[in-house]
Amino acid sequence: MGVSRAIPGAMQRPAGKPADLTAFHSPLSNPGFLRWYNSRVFISHKGLLMTTFNYVPLVELTRGPIVECIHYGAYAVVDAQNRVVQSAGDPEIVTFLRSSAKPFQALAFVEAGGVDAFHLTERELAVMCASHHGTDEHVRVISGIHKKIGIAESDLMCGIHPPTDPATAERMLKNGEPFTPIRHNCSGKHTGMLALCKLMGFPKEDYLNPQHPAQKLILDTFSQVTGVPKEQIILGTDGCSAPVFAIPLHAAAWAFAQLADPSALPEPRRSALRRIFHAMTSNPDMIAGPNAFDTDLMLAGKGMILSKGGWEGYQAIALLPGAYGKNSPALGICMKISDGDQGGARARTLACIEILRKLGALDAEQMKQLAPYAPRPLYNWRHIEIGEIRSAK
What we know:
It is built from 15 helices and 14 strands. It has about 400 residues and is an alpha+beta fold. It has one domain. Helix 5 packs across helix 8. It is globular.
């Protein structure tokens, strides 16, 4: 799958440095090439040149005898000691985690004692870390949190979209039921942010402003768990209007490794991370929904695998110690598909399944459960096999 390499120490080239273009018969002398090249570069917050050359082929689709489509990406596999044990592409690519950051956006609330203060259940904590699909069960759980912390749905500033769950959306449309903010896939996260405000005595008004004390505390906590100074974390605005963070894949994967094994961290962070991991893996239906990758992978993982996707082709995974063999260490895996992987998240899911399979984290029965996301034949509308989706060769 692409160009995968183990990293025993130093990288093969400085992070962010493009490949040696002179190997292509000096195309830099071609004005047309320069225009194309310059349209695909940007300067990162560290001043490093980042280009599409930092991504490698990860997934390809065939039609007949040829490859018709290639998805490029990069990933980092990191242990709890912050060692990159495997990667493809550049593990130092700086990109937004999008919704994959949600477990860490809830961390400040959990380690401040919010779960116990409001007598929240594991399912309620799980949905705070979720990109839920807006089912009636999700609404029921989030409504319960609102009652416990003393807020109303009207306090949510996430916006409105139809439920991600097709059956729920179809029923609501058929019955003329209005779509409201609580059905938004980020309403659990926003509820958690408002819960933090209530816990700490912060005003709930303008709670999404990066200068709001709740967002400052969330950013400080995220910086600590990823090891990236907050001055170097690039801030953006997510689809739900909350602040979103861009950091290197390597740093994000380290955070997920610590989510799986926080034993080296002091209290209360150690217990808070363990609580989040257990809540998410014990309630996978809260994290996404029916026929969703995060939910299906955690169901198959039987408490050993945590999965949290993000929009625009981001995927994060945390593996408990022992998840892929006796005495195997905890790992964090973070991946970015460069084209955003729209229209079904077909590339990141397959690439992640292949990484887990090769690590030994998925056995034959689990692979059978996850067949809709694994390498597989492709069919047209008449169910004629026309090609396959597979790891890039």
